[in-house]
Design goal:
2 domains; alpha/beta; 11 helices; about 35% helix
Length: about 270
């Protein structure tokens, strides 16, 4: 399965984003974001494009995945065309904060810190995080065993923050393929990722010698994020309305089962 980066790469850094502060998109335009989107007829949707089965390239080079279909359906309900833009995780976060992208749909887990920098949509996916090690590693059996160990994940991801909270040193890696390569080569001790992503990887790459050592007890709540501020209020309401309709008519569940083989759109 191809998991290459596609499209336009975000060049902004998280440091730059933090310097802009919250609500930079509002201050720059002073115009309602939903009105801007509807006037141009497109909504700019940020995602990595290399994280199956959430967002990735299929064998024909098409951008596909759970987030691609969910965001595409949301765009349809808003009456506009989706413009998917791919790049590195921290650059995408910065691009949303500065208004370069209208929304980001990429398994964005909720954190209190992020909620102060972005508007979240209602949650539409609930994700379990797994701790993954090499098949011959019997030393790491719990999250607490990460203390003093080295892991790898995308910079500023919830997986990086979680690993650090347990005392691990985290090495930045841009893709799941790169993460597993670092792990199997012995350059890191472990990695954290979405259970559904690891299940998909192990199904596609059955000869890779890795295993799940533990599960994080907390369930990660996933929503789309958009620029913080009053100009995004109407967009957030419209996105939430679209998600509510998709939940009610079974669209969310159908897309989840298509890519994950299970329904992760309910907290239950």
């Amino acid at each position: 399965m191809k998991k290459k980066l596609v499209g336009i790469f975000a060049v902004l850094t998280m440091t730059a984003a933090l310097l802009t502060g919250c609500g930079s998109s509002d201050e720059a335009t002073g115009e309602d974001l939903l009105s801007q989107i509807q006037e141009r007829g497109t909504i700019n949707i940020a995602m990595e494009g290399n994280w199956a089965p959430w967002t990735y390239e299929d064998e024909q080079g098409n951008l596909v995945g759970f987030e691609v279909e969910v965001a595409g359906e949301v765009a349809k309900k808003l009456g506009v065309e989706p413009n998917f833009v791919t790049g590195e995780w921290d650059g995408l976060l910065a691009g949303v904060q500065t208004g370069r992208y209208d929304i980001m749909a990429n398994g964005v887990g909720y954190t209190e810190e992020r909620s102060k920098a972005y508007y979240y949509s209602d949650f539409y996916a609930f994700n379990r995080t797994v701790l993954v090690v090499r098949g011959d590693n019997d030393d790491i059996k719990s999250m607490e065993d990460l203390a003093g160990k080295t892991t790898c994940n995308s910079a500023n991801s919830t997986y990086q923050l979680l690993a650090e909270s347990y005392g691990a040193t985290v090495k930045d890696v841009e893709s799941l393929d790169g993460t597993i390569e670092e792990l199997t080569a012995g350059r890191v001790d472990a990695t954290l990722n979405a259970e559904v992503s690891i299940n998909d990887y192990m199904k596609e790459q059955p000869d890779v010698d890795i295993k799940v050592a533990a599960y994080d007890p907390e369930v990660e709540k996933v929503g789309m994020i958009m620029p913080y501020g009053e100009s995004s209020e109407s967009l957030r309401k419209a996105v939430n309305q679209a998600l509510a309709e998709m939940r009610e008519d079974g669209t969310l569940s159908k897309i989840s089962n298509k890519y994950f083989g299970m329904d992760i759109t309910s907290e239950d």
